[in-house]
Design goal:
272 residues, 12 helices, 2 domains, MetI-like fold
Length: 272
């Protein structure tokens, strides 16, 4: 007996319908497996602390983290710290992605510029940007602009190299075809290069999510008086390691949500 179908699936074949049902069941099993694994790890963490397999003062516990979250919430400081770090990260992420894409377009547009800047981009990519943190503080000042600049500096070069690599890998036959019809360089960029490079740009976005968080947290370690990075440093200084672990868990959750936003953008663009 065939299963009843939603209205939008009436016109597809029985085999395709069954395949979609199997894929839906598989996705459900994957999500369920992830939830069970996370719950098992949290339970093991809690039990290990209670039985003193680990030192809960150093490693904390889920129950301690929940109490710390409740305390930060009651003090009214939780959302302020989260908001500051998220705002700085999103600003650095957007600026790094847009700036990197614009520079990559300029490099693709001018081969001379690309050849001139190539060794400098390689050097900047290999340079530990964190080492420039104190210099940025002196240049920009002690505050959020320096933190955003750190996130921008870490993510910018990776975005430039990633996106430009996608541009130069576009099939040259497509470019020559448009050139044969008299297309300008701007039209080639708009009609071939950018659409064909969307997967590369999305990959750069995914990488920049993590790099932006790294830049912001490092910046907050150095200069901030608020934010999740500040909470981590403060918790370590006063040996409130529950506060450190709570901040780390919040960071992981926020980074995961930001990454999922990029995944949703990728799905949206893939339907276009």
């Amino acid at each position: 007996m065939s299963m009843s179908r939603p209205q939008q699936l009436v016109n597809i074949s029985e085999e395709h319908f069954l395949y979609l049902q199997e894929r839906k069941k598989y996705r459900f099993r994957v999500i369920l497996g992830r939830i069970v694994l996370l719950a098992a790890l949290l339970a093991l963490w809690e039990i290990a602390g209670n039985l003193r397999w680990i030192d809960p003062f150093i490693t904390s516990q889920p129950s301690r983290i929940i109490k710390t979250l409740a305390l930060l919430h009651s003090e009214g400081a939780l959302y302020q710290h989260i908001g500051i770090t998220v705002l700085e990260t999103v600003a650095g992420f957007i600026l790094g992605t847009i700036g990197g894409t614009c520079i990559a377009i300029a490099l693709w547009w001018s081969k001379f510029l690309s050849d001139v800047l190539d060794p400098y981009l390689v050097i900047l990519n290999s340079l530990p940007k964190i080492a420039l943190g104190p210099i940025l503080i002196v240049w920009i000042g002690n505050g959020p602009p320096a933190i955003i600049a750190m996130a921008l500096l870490i993510s910018l070069i990776v975005a430039v190299l990633g996106v430009y690599s996608g541009f130069v890998q576009v099939e040259p036959e497509k470019i020559r075809l448009l050139q044969a019809f008299g297309a300008s360089k701007g039209q080639i960029l708009q009609m071939v290069i950018l659409p064909a490079s969307i997967p590369t740009i999305i990959s750069a976005l995914k990488i920049n999510v993590g790099l932006s968080w790294v830049g912001v947290i490092v910046g907050e370690f150095l200069v901030s008086r608020a934010g999740l990075g500040y909470l981590i440093v403060y918790g370590g200084q006063v040996f409130r390691l529950d506060l450190v672990m709570t901040s780390v868990i919040i960071l992981a959750a926020a980074a995961a949500l930001m990454y999922q936003a990029v995944v949703l953008l990728e799905k949206h663009l893939s339907r276009q």
